[in-house]
Queue: 3 jobs
Job 1
Amino acid sequence: MTTPAYPNLTVYGALWCPDCRRSKQFLAEHRIPYHWIDIEQEPDAQETVRRLNDGRQIIPTIVFDDGGLVLAEPSNAELAARLGINPQASRTHYDLIIVGAGPAGLTAAIYAAREGIDTLVIERGGVGGQAGSTERIDNYPGFAQGIAGADLADRMREQAERFGVELLVAQTVASIATSLPEGNESGVRAVSHTVATESGQQYRAPALLLTPGTRYRRLNVPGEDDFIGAGVHFCATCDGPFYRDRDTLVVGGGNSGIEEGLFLTRFASHVTVLEVGDRLRASQVLQDKAAAHPQMDVRLNTTVREFRGNGKLESVLVEDLKTGHQEELHPAGVFVFIGLDPNTAFLSDVVQLDQRGFIVTGAGPNSSMMETSRHGIFAAGDARAGSTKQVASAVGEGAAALIGIRAHMEDEIRNRGYSGD
Ligand SMILES: Cc1cc2nc3c(=O)[nH]c(=O)nc-3n(C[C@H](O)[C@H](O)[C@H](O)COP(=O)(O)OP(=O)(O)OC[C@H]3O[C@@H](n4cnc5c(N)ncnc54)[C@H](O)[C@@H]3O)c2cc1C
């Protein structure tokens, strides 16, 4: 695969700014290099931003060196258009539309296109999902030495394109509507689903696969973004083995924090759990296990203020919220477990979600394990309720969903003679 030539970019922003993070993530997902200037750290940067924006202080402000174009707070679609990334799909009708180009979506797309199912994948960022922006994946079978997440994403993309999958990136799916066949008010059988993007494009297909994934909650403190994968982690199963015989810190005293902390004791010499409240929120059983474990201790009323280091995490500034006392700790690695949210806000009136917003499958009119409450709409990967939140399982779910989708398509053709829109 050839990498297109992009102009040199400078991104002016601040650590606390969510749109700056979104733009940086978008550029990283597309492997587009950029120069980052923190307006709170660099002298004169705020003045530069005001000058570039006619006196207004808007971040992110992105400057292109070829022609000096300035984009102030651009959406991903605007940024993509300026970078020459394809702005819309080639057609409006497909056999299958997949929302999300992470491992689950890409796997399903590979399976689908290989069987001749005409497939469009719509992705709001770049190809690869969370896996694509992971420093190193060490537990995905077939890569004995591990593989950089970006490499794995590029390989999956290349394979999908080889089979003719159409990938539409930098477009966010905003809504989904289903049109029912005439004379069928019960809504049991759907004929066509219309997927609308934030920028107003509409695409139709008789089957949809939802693979929008999740996002880990961040602490949003200085240094966190800089050391992800270089001392700051969000997955003990993935990265715990890197900390054999080292001291680690776990942030979060809920069920996942304690469970992952206990898991880390298999490798780490010691695990300290920081909990912001005055008691742990994990179940009593887990609390008892933590209390009895010789390699674990808990610090209550404690929060992280800053991650420090030079290219790699060197220390963590923590604060006792009762006394205000600040202290620098020197763990080898920090694991943040303060929650995980599915990217399903746009699905709340489309399919059944569980209390935490994960997509419920297996409860629809058909018995297909991966079908949602709406006929013809399937779900797979991390956003699916009960999923395992690993690359290998997302890949497996993508393949399983496609088998269900194929059966759905055969069923539709048998029952209503459907053969494309
Ligand atoms: C820091 C980190 C390290 C990890 N390390 C490992 C590891 O070492 N090993 C391992 O097995 N797992 C690891 N994981 C977990 C792994 O990355 C995920 O389990 C896997 O990526 C899930 O795949 P998915 O396809 O379900 O979702 P995702 O990878 O999350 O992909 C979902 C995609 O959908 C897109 N999307 C969401 N909403 C919309 C919308 N409305 N419109 C269009 N697109 C949308 C998102 O932008 C995203 O690209 C790690 C995760 C993180 C965050």
Note: The first helix runs from residue 18 to 29.
Job 2
Amino acid sequence: AQLKGLQKSQILPTEDYEEAMEMIEISQMDIFNLLDHNQDGQLQLKEVLTHTRLGNGRWMTPQSIREMYAAVKADPDGNGVLSLEEFKQLNIRDFHKYMGSQKVKMSDLVRNSQHTWLYQGEGAHQVMRSIRQRVMRLTRLPPEIVEHSEPLQVVRYDQGGHYHAHMDSGPVFPETACSHTKLITNESAPFETSCRYVTVLFYLNNVTGGGETIFPIADNRTYEEMSLIQNDVDLRDTRKNCDKGNLRVKPQQGTAVFWYNYLSDGEGWVGDLDEYSLHGGCLVTRGTKWIANNWINVDPNKRRQLQFQQEMARYAKEGDEAQNEWTVDKSYSNVHVEL
Ligand SMILES: [Ca+2]
Ligand SMILES: [Ca+2]
């Protein structure tokens, strides 16, 4: 990975933000309804915080939201919640202007790390092949599924690095396409996700301080998105609240954690997203942290997955270099997967 060179996993937001946001055609009323999770006609702080996209890659905290309210005079009665009336008075342009004007540091982002992708397919270095084969044995998944999954992602977190809690894959609706099967099955869906059925996370070194993998709500009895944020404690915040999560795994060189991001559909295939798989990388307080991720991609739509596998087998047989290259490198070289 060092030889190949690593790229920033997330780049600082650009000034294009304001422009880009103005392109989105969505009414203020629609935004309000979307944010008002409990439908009480008020926007509580946590309802705004839950929609991480509003931050344009910047991690929002209760503090940063309050600062924003103050800057754009969003909450004139000062009760900490936005009524529909207050929200209507708000000039969304001021909000975008404010967001665009903020000086953002790497530590303010959702993710502060560097990564690269390493090829594991036919002809790859023996170490890379052996990792793939071990993943096959560990997960007991068919070789044709594992072989056609994403390459190995190697990630470096320097001191001060983190990755706030997230899911490795997205929910799948009938109108959602999977990144890996999209081109081959000719889907033109409005939504796309990476359909990562399984995550195998390898720890490549011992970290001097911090850098644990946190699963904030693992083994909770019930899942409630809004209960992730209580008062000013956001359990997803891996710079501040890793000590409050349910399961914390300390990096140990040569070990790995493995989990499913989706439940079973009860019929031997991939079902709904498992929301308990929410996880993040805690702040590295000392030293450097190196990990690698193997994701196993499975389309919850079985027909599309089988079609994809058939096509891939056909390409391999024809020895179509161009296609092979596309599947292993091109589609991942610039992909930033925000989940
Ligand atoms: Ca509300
Ligand atoms: Ca108010």
Note: The CA atoms of residues 7 and 188 lie 29 Å apart.
Job 3
Amino acid sequence: MTADTTSNTTANTGKTAATSVPVHPLLAGRWSPRGFEAAHRLGEERLRALLEAARWAPSAGNSQPWRFLAAHRGQDAFTRLLELLDPGNRAWAGAASALLLVAAETADETGRARPWALYDTGQAVAALSVQAQTDGLAVHQMGGFDAAAAREAFGLGETLTPVVVVAVGRLDADAVLPEPLAARERAPRTRHPLESLLLPAVPAVPAVPAVPAVPAVPAVPAVPAVPAVPAVPAAPEGQAA
Ligand SMILES: Cc1cc2nc3c(=O)[nH]c(=O)nc-3n(C[C@H](O)[C@H](O)[C@H](O)COP(=O)(O)O)c2cc1C
């Protein structure tokens, strides 16, 4: 087994994003692999650096709503987390060095809702991912897990919402994966064009007022039926009319 003790900034460059303009290599080089080195062990210092990066993420009112449950491969909690994953994720995530259950505290101690808790927690995981990339580690976030079962299995209170399970480890480009996972691992990374993400900055064009409805032309009253003219009795034969 190999334990991480040092930083390594060269990993995971195989699927570097083809960006429209240059961006930081850590961002362009990050991707979500399924092939992990099954013998790699995540050192405590490395794990701590990941969590520390997450800890310093910005959050609404500095509320810091993110919570992490970390388990190394081989630990009981790792096995329990693995069992909570959807089958497609369970097929590869067991080779990760650690699994993290990430939860968001969606209300404060007084019960007041934290509307940005999920957003903030995502930012913390983003920071963790970049730190992992710096340290030569790979991260793969998974929404495909049984959140209700996770809440139950780890005794999470009402205000804690399980958000993702994160696989952390060292990329193994030669890992043998079943299809269709192997094909996905080889596939180029894609994104929507940048322009398609941009909302128009112009004020919305006011709606054209609706043309007032033309009042309905009153119905022409029906012409009263002309009473039938009584038939003039025929003059008797031989009389002038
Ligand atoms: C919230 C979230 C949930 C995700 N859930 C899964 C998942 O359940 N299984 C999986 O294989 N990948 C999952 N991913 C990874 C995405 O599929 C991946 O980030 C996306 O396809 C872009 O690929 P890239 O990260 O390699 O650039 C998830 C990512 C995020 C952020």
Note: The mean pLDDT is 88.
